[in-house]
Amino acid sequence: MAPSSERFRQMLCYIHQDDLLRPQLLVGEIMLLAAHLKLGFKVTKAYKMDLIKHILSLLGLDHRYNVPTGKLSGGQKKRLAIALELISNPPVLYLDEPTTGLDSSSCSSCVALLKKLASQGHTIVCTIHQPSALIFEMFDKLYTVVDGHCMYQGPVRELVPFLADQQLVCPSYHNPADYLLEVAVGEHQRDLNELIHAANKKYYEDVDRHRYMSSDDMARLVESIKENMGGKAVVKTSEALAAFAAAQFSSFDYVKPSPQELALEEIKALSGGPESADPDLLEKNLRPQPQPLAKAGELARPPNAIRSASFLMQYVLLMQRILICAKRNYFLLLARIFSHIFIGVVFGYLYMNVGNNAQSVLGNYVYLYGSTLLLVYTGKMAVVLTFPLEIDMLTREHFNRWYKLGPYFLSLISFEIPFQSLCTAMYIIISVHLTGNDATDSFRIYYFMLLGIMASLSAQAWGFFVGATLPTKLAVFLGPILAVMFSVFGFCTRYIDITPLFRWMWHLSYFRAGFHGALNAIYGMDRPFLECPETAMYCHFRSPKVFLKYMMISDVHMSDCLILMGIVIGVMHVLTLITLWHKLNKR
């Protein structure tokens, strides 16, 4: 099976070097969430709970079931990351430096755990730098890379004899791993090209030695596999063995450690043996065979077929995760709410009672501009860091087939859009009442609120796109700059005063659409004359139509503004989804 094939990718999981866990979730909650996503809902919850307890007990985390992941130690976080992937019982686990950031005791425990998993049928592949002698001896096979070339590959126990054959004698008191690194960096004045050539020669000699198997070796191999699989009959050809192994690996049957290790070369040698498959025997082995829960820790495979959660259930589960995290980390949400309330009160008292005053039309004009500017900035900057902070976690969970991109993105905007709309509505209700813009027709306030929400959501969509496209520092820097560029049109400069080179930005500016729409909501739609104070000698803008005509927005329709902002929201969300898909699927 080629490593690049889709079937092979479905059989492996990748565990990142960093502990990519959401600190708000409890250990039991995140394990149950992973079980729901990976196993689907045709598997009973009772089985999932048994599986979770079994895995946590296997990894020594059963006593931390109700502890938030943010309060776990470094070694416990590493074990929890492994436990999350063991739910789907992947045949192959890739780990990127699993001992990084751990103390010596935690390092030994982590590698011992990986050794135990390897003895239970998993293939464990991990990178490691400068392991101690104790940890180094736990590994079965070693692959050393220097300058992009293999300097040694083979059993760990054969490393020291191999180096001795190359006139590189490792002292008995020296850690072989440290000695090998010293050779790799050139401390022993040895030509690495000769060592690389010798390693390749040794590898091909080992391959030739195990290319074919005798009948006795074949019988021993089959008996070993049969013992690992619980005494069931097994097939005897390479193709049938591959299919049989894939079926067994997906059966969630955690078997007991085998007393003897099967060499990889022996399994490869099956390709040179006789090809006499028994279809009836193969079908029998591939058919699910339920087993009762074993007292010794063996776990029965589920009674129903294993299928990951559907699109809808993935969306529901991810939405539930977002709500739990938001409930337990509510400070940021409260800050967003109170900031809108506070600025609404400040703006309200700053522009108090300008709404129906013909002498204060320009003051109300500035209030509407400042409101649109506030809603655009809060909408964009509140989410611009969402993807830069979550992209590593999203990449790991998506690669390990927890969920698809669609449900994740849909659940995210399903939370952010209503929340930002709520914040916008609270600001407008407070500020509109204090400024006196609600003194006339109430439907104008509803239109103003709708336009403010659409402007804020347009900026939010831009924030998602900028955050998904650019690195963190660049996204924080360019986000406000883009908002300033779009905010220029419609307030400081009239359309006839814009250089023809930049008039296209006037037509595409969602800020201009929101601001002009708000002006039409307040002063358009045949609004009657404004009140002119008795102390004023003359009110030039007593007629709202005169003001709109003077600002050259009398022919702007709110429907056009709403359509433009709706298009911006849809297009930017689609572009964000495409950008994320490209990042998650690039090779």
UniProtKB/TrEMBL annotation:
Family (UniProt): Belongs to the ABC transporter superfamily. ABCG family. Eye pigment precursor importer (TC 3.A.1.204) subfamily.
ABC transporter domain ranges (all copies): 5-100
Tagged with keyword Transport: yes
Name of encoding gene: CG17646-RA
Protein's UniProt name: MIP21644p
Keyword Membrane found: yes
GO cellular component term, pick one: membrane
Keywords tagged on the record: Membrane, Transmembrane, Transmembrane helix, Transport
Organism, as annotated: Drosophila melanogaster
Domain ABC-2 type transporter transmembrane positions: 314-522
Membrane topology: Multi-pass membrane protein
ABC transporter family G domain residues: 129-233
Transmembrane segments: 330-352, 364-387, 408-430, 445-467, 474-496, 562-581
